[in-house]
């Protein structure tokens, strides 16, 4: 625990100007980002008597080891920079909203040559226009099915699209008129994009234009006695109206607005948002967050607005934003929203009428979401804190293990041996820190190859050695190849902070991948695996990281050098957290091992070509479409592939000329034998599953 007075700036150093500040820990990791109208007043408030600080603020300033700031000219610039740094550094003491469930959205991939309509979840991607989110995926599919009658936009995956283009036949939707079949050239790319744009306009609320146009075409067809066409247009109009009716009218004046509500208690807060477009509720979204900083309702609203609109295009910000509380001052936030939208945004609290009634409905949803979230054991901040305290007490640690790393080994009868490293911080999975290892078979100074004595204990020793050797290398980077750790040279070009020793990448300015040590290492296994992990760290001189193992059979916790395990009660929150960490490491290792195994099963003649990596193999197959066409190509034609030089092309040609023809491929969906051109177009199982 650090003393804030040890890094408190000298009087007069802090400017009395707007700006953004960062607190860093002793590993140079950013743990908190904030903004202030006056940096001097705000930062001074952190260095008062610890007893007068909010408990989470007190924890933050005692975890930090330094503070730095950046001066800006206006509060709007401070708001923008604060959002950018929170997205970049993901500080653990900042409010971070998590979706209370995975909401699906209707997405149109406008960035592709032939835009595709599909259901998407997760973070938003560039070049994709989103509508929603919706409460259920089936609601999106029903809406899309109705609208494809009028706007036959492509909905197939990339693999199906490529397959149809190769065989010259569209899929079923192309035959029944619910896809314009651009894959076989029924429409041009420009005509298909026009259909996609009309689809987006209709979903955005501009429905009257299309309905009036279709009604006019229907009357014209009836007058010219084209009754079949008139009947089809009548059915199209009815389909569009049914799609519109799936969204209830809540505001009679065709308002575009987002309505926010916040339900909170001392530990957590839940935010609910209703997206109203054209007077109808087009989507709903919910977030939950731990109260990790001393922030009021207005502050929670500000963070929610930053997260929702920070990555939105201008079309995603509505004309009205209704909130339960306004930040003080409100002008910088309103100016930031107006800049995002490109025009004025009305940010206010509804006082009367339909909008206030709708706010009450959103508030009831937020309260229910908070109650539901409180029942979820793993997300409860109090429960996680108790679990970490129980682990520290059971293992005899000086402090709670805020960062826990777990390692697991996976293989198939000694082949394709891999390892996983998963990271939990504050009791929650931090997936961006996960790492995967291929076991090379190096144990000390000897080489142990797969199938020749390789086992879980030796693999565990190797992976722990590699992880912490990388940590020492990152810590000791000085700029020259003049230092070694266990015989491995230190790469040049790194920068080490002279005060804190934090390894910083000079190109990105961020910490390197293995820069932060854990307080606790958990291995999947019993006494032998724990001993191997401890021995690996002792060989590297790592003595400030605790080690334990969790054996599956009786869920016993093993410590290095102990003949008897530590037995935690079955109802222990600490045991429950260790089990979740171990199970996540096991899942991650199994997934990687299966991926490697499936790659091995798909090995072909190109895999044996020396110097030809995965990227260039894929480029060759994509360029020629199949091995048969690649085998028939000349060396000059192979050289046309980006990244393939003449020497490589000659090697590929020789390898394919001497390779026996591949066995006939079988379509796993139908059981039929396919031609070689067809088999090359079939996506691997993982891709088919994603599609």
Tell me what you see in this structure.
There is one protein chain. It is built from 22 helices and 27 strands. The protein is of the alpha+beta class. The strands form 8 sheets. Strands 13, 14, 15, 16, 23, 24 and 25 form a 7-stranded mixed beta sheet that branches. A 6-stranded mixed beta sheet has the order 4-10-9-8-11-12. Helix 3 crosses helix 11 and helix 8 packs antiparallel against helix 9. The protein is globular, with a radius of gyration of 30 Å. The C terminus is likely disordered.
- Uncertain runs are 442-454, 478-504, 660-691
Major β-sheet profile: 7 strands, mixed
Shape: globular
> Would you tell me the overall average pLDDT?
77
Question: What's the β-strand tally?
Answer: 27
* Terminal-residue CA separation: 49 Å
Roughly how much helix do the residues carry, as a percent range? Answer: 40-55%
Q: Give the structural class.
A: alpha+beta
| Radius of gyration from the alpha-carbon trace, in angstroms | 30 Å
Strand content: 15-25%
Quickly count the helices: 22
What is the fold's blueprint, element by element?
Elements: E1 19-24, E2 30-36, H1 39-46, H2 55-63, E3 66-71, H3 75-89, E4 98-99, E5 105-108, E6 117-120, E7 129-131, H4 137-147, H5 158-167, H6 172-175, H7 189-203, H8 208-223, H9 227-245, E8 257-264, E9 268-277, E10 280-290, H10 297-309, E11 320-322, H11 331-341, E12 346-348, H12 353-374, H13 381-395, E13 403-412, E14 415-425, E15 428-429, E16 435-438, E17 442-443, E18 446-447, H14 456-476, E19 484-485, E20 488-489, E21 495-496, E22 503-504, E23 520-524, H15 527-539, E24 546-551, E25 556-558, H16 573-601, H17 614-624, H18 627-632, H19 635-639, H20 646-658, E26 665-666, E27 673-674, H21 676-681, H22 685-690
Parallel strand pairs: 8-11, 11-12, 13-23, 23-24
Antiparallel strand pairs: 1-2, 1-3, 4-10, 5-6, 5-7, 8-9, 9-10, 13-14, 14-15, 14-16, 17-18, 19-20, 21-22, 24-25, 26-27
Helix pairs in contact: 3-11, 4-9, 8-9, 13-16, 14-15
């Amino acid at each position: 625990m650090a003393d804030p007075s040890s890094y408190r700036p000298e009087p007069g150093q802090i400017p009395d100007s707007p700006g953004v500040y960062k607190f860093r820990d002793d590993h140079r990791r950013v743990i908190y980002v904030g903004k202030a109208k006056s940096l001097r007043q705000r930062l001074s408030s952190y260095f008062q008597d610890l007893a007068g600080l909010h408990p989470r603020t007190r924890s933050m300033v005692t975890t930090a080891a330094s503070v730095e700031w950046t001066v800006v000219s206006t509060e709007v610039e401070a708001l923008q920079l604060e959002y950018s740094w929170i997205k970049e550094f993901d500080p653990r003491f900042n409010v971070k909203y998590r979706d209370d469930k995975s909401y699906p959205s209707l997405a149109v991939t406008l960035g592709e040559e032939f835009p595709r309509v599909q259901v998407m979840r997760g973070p938003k991607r560039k070049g994709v226009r989103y509508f929603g989110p919706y409460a259920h995926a089936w609601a999106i599919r029903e809406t899309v099915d109705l609208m494809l009658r009028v706007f036959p936009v492509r909905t197939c995956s990339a693999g199906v699209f490529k397959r149809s283009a190769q065989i010259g036949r569209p899929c079923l939707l192309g035959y029944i008129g619910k896809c314009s079949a651009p894959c076989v050239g029924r429409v041009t790319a420009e005509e298909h994009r026009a259909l996609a744009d009309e689809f987006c306009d209709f979903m955005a609320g501009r429905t009257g234009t299309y309905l009036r146009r279709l009604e006019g075409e229907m009357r014209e067809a009836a007058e010219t006695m084209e009754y079949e066409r008139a009947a089809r247009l009548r059915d199209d109009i009815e389909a569009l109206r049914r799609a519109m009716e799936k969204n209830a009218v809540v505001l009679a004046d065709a308002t575009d607005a987002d309505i926010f509500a916040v339900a909170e208690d001392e530990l957590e807060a839940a935010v609910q948002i209703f997206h109203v477009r054209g007077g109808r509720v087009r989507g709903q979204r919910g977030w939950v967050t731990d109260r990790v900083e001393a922030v009021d309702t207005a502050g929670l609203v500000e963070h929610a607005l930053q997260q929702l609109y920070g990555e939105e295009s201008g079309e995603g910000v509505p004309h009205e934003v209704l909130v339960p509380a306004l930040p003080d001052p409100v002008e910088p936030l309103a100016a930031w929203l107006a800049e995002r939208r490109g025009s004025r945004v009305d940010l206010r609290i509804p006082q009367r009428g339909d909008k206030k009634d709708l706010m009450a409905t959103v508030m009831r949803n937020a309260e229910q979401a908070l109650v539901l979230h409180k029942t979820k054991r793993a997300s409860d901040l109090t429960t996680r804190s108790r679990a970490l305290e129980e682990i520290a007490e059971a293992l005899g640690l000086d402090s709670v293990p805020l960062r826990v790393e777990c390692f697991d080994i996976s293989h198939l009868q000694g082949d394709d041996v891999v390892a996983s490293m998963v990271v939990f911080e504050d009791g929650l999975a931090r997936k961006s820190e996960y790492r995967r290892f291929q076991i090379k078979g190096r144990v000390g100074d000897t080489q142990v190859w797969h199938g020749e004595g390789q086992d879980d204990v030796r693999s565990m020793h190797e992976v722990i050695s590699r992880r912490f050797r990388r940590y020492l290398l990152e810590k000791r980077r000085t700029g020259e190849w003049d230092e070694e750790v266990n015989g491995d040279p230190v790469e040049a070009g790194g920068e080490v902070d002279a005060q804190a020793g934090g390894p910083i990448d000079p190109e990105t300015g961020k910490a390197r991948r293995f820069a932060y040590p854990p307080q606790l290492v958990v291995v999947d296994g019993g006494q032998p695996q724990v001993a191997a992990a401890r021995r690996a760290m002792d060989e590297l001189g790592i003595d400030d990281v605790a080690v334990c193992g969790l054996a599956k059979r009786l869920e016993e916790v093993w410590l290095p050098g102990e003949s008897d395990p530590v037995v935690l009660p079955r109802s222990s929150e600490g045991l429950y957290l260790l089990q979740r960490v171990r199970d996540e490491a096991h899942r991650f290792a199994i997934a990687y091992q299966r991926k490697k195994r499936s790659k091995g099963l798909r090995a072909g003649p190109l895999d044996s070509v020396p110097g030809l990596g995965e990227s260039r193999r894929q480029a060759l197959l994509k360029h020629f479409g199949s091995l048969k066409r690649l085998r028939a190509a000349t060396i000059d034609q192979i050289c046309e592939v980006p990244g393939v030089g003449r020497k490589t092309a000659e090697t590929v040609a020789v390898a394919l000329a001497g390779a026996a023809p591949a066995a006939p491929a079988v379509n796993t969906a139908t059981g039929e034998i396919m031609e070689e051109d067809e088999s090359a177009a079939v996506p691997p199982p993982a891709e088919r599953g994603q599609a």
